[in-house]
Amino acid sequence: MYTQALNSSDGEERHIEDAERAAQFQARIDAEERIEPNDWMPAAYRKTLTRQISQHAHSEIVGMLPEGNWITRAPSLRRKAALLAKVQDECGHGLYLYAAAETLGSSREELVDLMLAGKAKYSSIFNYPTLTWADIGTIGWLVDGAAIMNQIPLCRCSYGPYARAMIRVCKEESFHQRQGFEIMLTLCRGTDEQKAMAQDALNRWWWPVLMMFGPPDQVSQHSDTSTKWKIKRFSNDELRQKFVDATVPQAQFLGLSIPDPGMKQNEAGNWEYSAIDWEEFKQVLAGNGPCNRDRLAARRKAHDDGAWVREAAVAYAEKRRQRSTLQAAE
Amino acid sequence: MTVANISVSETPLVLYTLRRADDALILGHRLSEWCGHAPMLEEDMALANMGLDLLGQARELYSYAAKVEGRGNDEDKFAYLRDVRQYRNLLLLEQPNGDFARTMVRQFFYASFADLYWRAMMRSTDATLAAIAAKSEKESAYHVRHSSEWIVRLGDGTEESHRRAQSAIDELWAFTGEMFSVDDSERALIDAGIAIDPAPLRSQWLKTITGVADEATLALPTNDWMQQGGRSGRHSEHLGHLLSELQSMPRTFPGATW
C-alpha cells in the first residue's frame, strides 16, 4: 500500500533556513552536486520539487486514459500488445515518480488525493480526446517526443531521486516515440483513408503539443528559481524551438503537412512557427478542455471503486500481523 | 460489419490450437480492459502483465494454427475476422470483469487449471505445442500466485470483500466444468499423444482451489451443474459485445495494414 514512512518531515517547521545553510546549498548546486533526500534543502526547493514531481506522476497516470481508450480496439494483435505494454510503462513511470516525490516527505496517498480533488495539476495534453487510431500514433510521435525534449535535461536535475527516475523514464519514452512514429509511417504508407486519418490527427494535436512546453518565457512563473536550482536547464521557448526543429523534417518524411501555413525556416535553420493560441491553453488549464471532466471522473471512479479492495488488503495484513504476534507469544 | 468472416478448416489440430488461442486472447482482452482503472497502480501493472502474457500465448497459438491450417489465415485474421459462432474459448473467460473480486476469481479458476494443463502439455509429441506449453506454464504459475494471494486477502479481509469474493465464486463456479471436458475431435489428439486429457487434472485443481478457499474462509459451491458450449461456439451474450469492440478497426477498414 501507500507508504507513510516518510511523512514525518511534512509537519516540521522548516523556517530556520539561515543564510549560511542556504549559501552552502546553492554552492553545492552550482558545483553540480546532487541533492539527496536526507540533505538539508530550502523549504521552497522541497515544495517546488514536490509540486513538479507529483504533477509529473499525475500526468503519467492520467495519461494512461487517452491511450487506454484504444487498447481494446487496437487494429492488430501486435499493436494491441505494444499499446498495452506502453500504457503499462506509463503506469510504471507514475510509480517511480510518486516514489521520488515521497522522498521529499509527501505520501503517494496525499498527492493522489490532491489530484483527485482537482487541486493538483497534470499535463493539459491529456485533456484532449483520442478519436481515431492515428491519435495513438500521434501521441507516441509528438506527445512522447515533446515529453522527451522536456525530460532529457531533467536527467541532470539537481535532485538525485528525480534525476535517476528520469533516466529510466527517458529510455522508455524514446522507445514509445519510435513506436508512435512507426504507427504514423504505416498509416502514411497505407490507404487514402489511413493517410487522411494521420493528417487529421496531426491537425488536432499539433498546437496542443506545442503548448506542452508551457507559457512563453516572458510570462513563465516558475522559471527563475527553478533555473537557479538547476531543476530547469532550458527555457520553455528554447525547448519548444528544439522540438519544432526536430519534428518538421519528420513530418516531411511522413508526407504530412504541419497545420501552420505561415511556418518558415529562417537563415539559422530554425523553423519559425505562428503565434500560439494561449487562450486555449488557459481554458484547458482552467478545467475547460474537451476531456478534463472525463479524465478526473475516470480517475475518481477507479479510486472509489477500488476503495474496498485497498481496505481489504489493509484489513488482511492487520489480521496476519495480529496472528503472528499471537503465535510468537505462545 | 463490412468485412466478411474468414472460413476456417477446423481439422482436429487446428481446432484444438484455436481453442487455446481463443482462451488466451479473450481473457487477455478482458484483463486489458482494466488498464487505467484498477484499484491501485500496482494492480494496473499486474493485470496488464497477465494480459500481456496471455496475448503473447494467443499470438503464438494463432500463428501455429495458421501454419497447420495452411490456407493463408494468420493471427490477425483468426482474431479479427471470425464471429461469435466461430470463437472456441471457454465460457468462463468471456465473462465480464465485474468487480475486482470477479476478475480475480475468474483468473484464479482459470490459471490454476492452465498451470496444470500446460505443465502436462510439455509432454506433447507436437514440438511446437510442447514449447508453447513450457512458456505458458511459467506464466500461469505467476498468475496462480498473484490471483490466489488476492483471493485470500479478499476472502479474509473485510466483510464487504468477503461478500464480493464469495459472490464471484458462486457466480463463476458453473463455468469451471468446461475446462475439463473433451469432445471427439480432441479425443483423437489425446490418443495420438498430441494433446493431454484434462479430466484427470480436476482432482488436483480442486485440491488447489479448496486449499486457497479454506485459507480465504470462502466456501465452494456444492452445485454440480456445469454450463458448457464455448468450445463449439455456443457462447454467452457477452462475447458478441467484446468482439464488436475488439474487431471494430479491421471490420471498418477492409484490407488495411496497421
Describe the structure using short key phrases.
heterodimer, A: 330 residues, mainly alpha, two-stranded antiparallel sheet, 13 helices, globular, B: 258 residues, 11 helices, 0% strand
Determine the structural class of chain B based on helices, strands and strand pairing. mainly alpha
Main β-sheet description of chain B? none
Principal-axes geometry of chain B comes out as globular
The pLDDT mean of chain A sits at 93
End-to-end distance of chain A: 29 Å
Helix content of chain A: 55-70%
The sequence of SSEs of chain B as H and E is HHHHHHHHHHH
User: Most extensive interface: pair and counts?
Assistant: A-B, 48 and 49 residues
Strand order, biggest sheet of chain A?
A: 1-2
What does the secondary structure layout of this molecule look like, with pairings?
The complex is a heterodimer of chains A (330) and B (258).
Chain A: H1 19-30, H2 43-62, H3 64-68, H4 77-102, H5 108-116, H6 133-151, H7 160-188, H8 192-211, H9 223-228, H10 236-254, E1 264-265, E2 271-272, H11 278-288, H12 292-305, H13 307-329
Antiparallel strand pairs in A: 1-2
Chain B: H1 12-32, H2 41-69, H3 75-80, H4 91-94, H5 100-121, H6 127-155, H7 159-172, H8 184-191, H9 202-215, H10 238-246, H11 248-252
Helix pairs in contact in B: 1-2, 1-8, 2-6, 5-6, 5-7, 5-9, 6-7
Structure write-up:
The complex is a heterodimer of chains A (330) and B (258). Chain A has helices spanning 19-30, 43-62, 64-68, 77-102, 108-116, 133-151, 160-188, 192-211, 223-228, 236-254, 278-288, 292-305, 307-329; strands at 264-265, 271-272. Chain A has 330 residues and is an all-alpha fold. Chain A is globular and about 75 Å long. Chain A starts with 18 loop residues before the first helix and ends with a helix. With 258 residues, chain B is mainly alpha-helical. Chain B has eleven helices and no strands. Chain B has helices spanning 12-32, 41-69, 75-80, 91-94, 100-121, 127-155, 159-172, 184-191, 202-215, 238-246, 248-252. In chain B, helix 5 runs antiparallel to helix 6 (127-155), helix 5 (100-121) crosses helix 7 (159-172) and helix 5 packs antiparallel against helix 9. Chain B is globular. Chain B starts with 11 loop residues before the first helix and ends in a 6-residue tail after the last helix. In chain B, 52% of the residues are buried. At the A-B interface, helix 3, helix 4, helix 7, helix 12 and helix 13 of A face helix 1, helix 2, helix 3, helix 6 and helix 7 of B.
